[in-house]
Structure formats: structure tokens, C-alpha cells
Amino acid sequence: MDPLLRGDRATVSVTAREVEQAGNIREFLGDERPTLSIRGAGSPETSLTVPAELTSVILQLVDLVGRGCTVTVGSIPAEVTTTVAAQMLNISRPTLMKLVREQRIPSHKVGAHTRLSSRDVIDYRRAQLARQSKAFDELRALEEQWDITD
Fold first, then answer.
1. CB 114 within 8 A of CB 95
2. Which residue has the higher pLDDT, 82 or 48?
3. Distance from the first to the final alpha carbon of the chain
4. Do residues 89 and 121 lie in contact, with contact meaning Cβ atoms separated by under 8 Å?
5. Dihedral pair phi/psi, residue 39, rounded to 5°
6. Is the pLDDT of residue 74 over 60?
7. What is d(CA 126, CA 80) in angstroms, rounded to the nearest whole number?
8. 34 pLDDT higher than 90
9. Which residue spans within the chain are E strands per DSSP?
10. Cβ(14)–Cβ(65) below 8 Å
């Protein structure tokens, strides 16, 4: 599995066998989150215990690949501009600024520019998705209650 490198970007393609193996690991682990250790190939005495944070990332990748998902890995800066935050939320910049004015998303000024914490933007997105999911579940319950079918 050699990555295709383009500047600071890399693309890694996984084979059907690797997806199958990831699925097997996913099934084996279930909800368990073990610690991971890496053993050197040349010397069995050389080993490294993977930090918990990185273990979490690796296990999430294995889980997603095992489900057959396409995964994009990237880093997010600690704070973002309003344009980037709006893109992350899939809303217009004016809509984002309205949310900022209403203090529904925390922000701060850097000179004359508004900046948002990436964590706050991600938390807002998660809350937004949870609200949408709840509304959809309520709609489905009403459809069942009123016996509405397609």
C-alpha cells in the first residue's frame, strides 16, 4: 500500500482484502478500545506503545474502513476564519455571522476579523446533526402513528 504523494497531500488506496481485514478487527474488538503496541520487524525487542489519542484515531480508521467507508484524514487548525467555518457547516457566511451575533457559536476578534474555534464549529455541527436526526425520528413516529405510507 504505497501512498500517492502530491506535495503535502497523500492518497492511500486500500484493497478489498484490507477492507475485509479491517472488518474482522472491527468485529473482534466490538466496543472495546484496547491499547496498541507496535513491534519492530527486524528486532522483536523493539516495540512502541501507541499513545491513547493516536490509538483512538487508528481504531476509528479501522472501523470506518471495515464498514467500507471512504475516509479522508486531515488536520484542522485550532481556529478558523468565518469563510472556513461556514464551509464546515455547509451554510452561507451571512448565516454564520447571524449565528455569531446571536451568540449561538462562540467567536472572538483578531483585529477587525472574526475567528472561531474549530472545536466550537465542530460541536455546533454535531448538535445540528443531532437536532436534525431527532426531528426526522419524530416525523417518522408521526407517520407511523397516522399510518402514512408511500
1. no
2. 82
3. 46
4. yes
5. -105, 135
6. yes
7. 17
8. no
9. 4-6, 9-11, 37-39, 47-49, 79-81, 108-110, 113-117
10. yes
Query: What are the residues whose beta carbons fall under 8 Å from the beta carbon of 110, sequence distance 6 or more?
Result: none
| Integer Cα distance of 55 and 69 in angstroms | 19
Distance between CA 39 and CA 79 in Å, rounded? 36
- φ, ψ at 79 (rounded to 5°): -135, 155
The three three-digit cell numbers of residue 92, written as one number: 452561507
pTM of the shown model: 0.59
pLDDT digits (tens, 9 = 90+) for 97-146: 999 999 999 999 999 999 999 999 999 999 999 999 999 999 999 998 99
Give me the amino acid identity at 90: N
Q: Which residues pair with 110 in a beta bridge?
A: 113
Question: How far is residue 128's CA from residue 104's CA, in Å, rounded to a whole number?
Answer: 11
Question: What type of residue is 96?
Answer: L
Q: Which three cell numbers stand for residue 70?
A: 471512504
